[in-house]
Amino acid sequence: MVVVPHGGPHSCSTSTFAPGIAFLASKYAVLLPNYRGSIGFGQASLNSLLSRIGKVDVDDVMMCTRYVIDNFSVVDGDRVGICGGSHGGYLTAQCTSQYPEFFKAAAMRNPVTNIASMITSTDIPDWCLGEVMGEYDQSLYCGPTLNQITKMYEKSPVSLVHRVKTPTLIALGMADLRVPPSQGLEWFHSLRSLGVPTKLLKYPNDCHSLNLVTTEIDHWLHIRKWFDKYL
């Protein structure tokens, strides 16, 4: 089975057709968890994720995954992968670092890995402050404080990267202004230094969504091959 947490985090997975997901589903069971903070469940549920990323969203993804393993005999609990982009990439990194023995393969696209460094280079610094601190007042913004940077680092996967054992494929749009390529590069070089199997895909003309036709085809083919190798 492949778990695919959505990005945002304030968006949601739906039952509409998605080519990449359909491609994965041609061989693997695919789980699309709508964790706390996803839209469609009311404002209180959406707001419940603010200042709690890396905890409640991870808890929900793991709860859904374990439920499916325990209740659907077709799913092999020893062959579970995880794949996500943007905040889904953040969750992929968090899950493989917090649960280093659970996932046998991972793939991420333009992942958020270090919010403390991302805030000074992203086009949405308000996202960093809002998701980590729970609030954001643009009129007061003059750069992150030491306290804010510390909390951002603590809620970032990079703080636990030393625990990762899962083979990880990383795809980056080198023109991404939302989650700069440095985020994925930091994760890639960290995994290499730890001896964790990893591979880096660079797409020089792509932005955050990696939606050029040739890129999308190449990207999903690599993801499928990666899971075929390690699951």
TrEMBL record:
Matching InterPro entries: AB_hydrolase_fold, Peptidase_S9_cat
GO MF terms held by the record: serine-type endopeptidase activity
SUPFAM superfamilies from the UniProt entry: alpha/beta-Hydrolases
Gene3D superfamilies given in the database record: alpha/beta hydrolase (3.40.50.1820)
Keyword line: Hydrolase
Domain annotation Peptidase S9 prolyl oligopeptidase catalytic: ranges: 22-231
BP term (GO), one: proteolysis
Superkingdom of origin organism: Eukaryota
Protein's UniProt name: Apeh protein
Organism, as annotated: Fragilariopsis cylindrus CCMP1102
